[in-house]
Amino acid sequence: MKIVVTSIFVQDQDKALKFYSEKLGFVKKEDVPAGEFRWITLVSPDDPDGTELLLEPNNHPAAKEYQEKIFTDGIPATMFGVADIRKEYNRLVEKGVKFTMEPTEMGEVTIAVFDDTCGNLIQIVQM
Prior knowledge:
By secondary structure, the protein is an alpha/beta fold. About 25% of the residues lie in helices and about 40% in strands. Pfam families: Glyoxalase.
């Protein structure tokens, strides 16, 4: 068994698609109608057949409340791995991404946290 799709709640699918593709560099894999919304997934350009990230609308009250509470408490919604966190941090800052935590060593890993502008804090980690 393996993880094929993981999702993140977003306030606006179009805004999220733009941020995750243009700022972060993920590649759109799927974008198909799904009722009043769309099934939009992205993948890493380094692993086009790897795990897909689904941009899930937060229109359900429980999803919206969950997203707002973890954001308010400063809890990242998900984590992405990077090879060189300082290089990635600088690249993202140059693209206008706002960080709530600069690269910080935590034992064997270095982490940083940014605001995805769609209701989430996202953590990047260098192992």
